[in-house]
Amino acid sequence: MKRTLLLTALLFIGFWGLTCTKSFSPAAYFPLKLGYTWFYSGLIHTMEVTEVAMLQKGEQYTIAMYDSSETILCKETYLLKGKQIYWTSFQPDVATIPNIYFEPAIPIAPISDKIGETFSLHVFEKRDDGTGCRVRVTGRIEDAGSQKTGIGTFADCIKMHLQYEYLDEACSRLLAGSTYYWYARDVGIIRFEMPSGEGELSSAKFNNRPLFP
Mind giving me the DSSP string for 112-156? Predict the structure, then answer.
């Protein structure tokens, strides 16, 4: 009888441990809500969720990016569909550069928490000046675990590499190159390296409250 009770207790503890373990969800590493704001070192100083729209295919979020003088650099739109977040458009605040729309949209949150996981996607870059380009976007999970930054150490992080390659020689290459993102669960992007510059999270506000003391 005691043996049966002990085995039952062990099974219960094992089941409880499994059910309480957080399952992987890409969107958990890039939480988006209206008003969420991240501050960084580098050219991109501020990222803020400025608009939310409910679409038939999912929730669309608009993020505005600013430099340190609070001049807007660009806007990007993201679509939350299922548990993944997809990059749907890039809208620079420069008259000489067209807005770009991605068909299909590009996964922008981590695709996995397993090192070495990859994806490859053929995308059509539709521009609002009437032109378009064929692009191959590849992604790879480079690292997972804790990540130390200037404001502290984040325990649950994922590093993802995105490679953006134009397939049409005649196309002007507006977004070509490699980008690296480091994401922290329930926080978002804590570090990035891209052709135009790099940055590291210095602070954040969720619901108008500082995320860090």
Answer: -SSTT-EEEEEEEEEETTS-EEEEEEEEEEEEEEEEEETTEEEEE
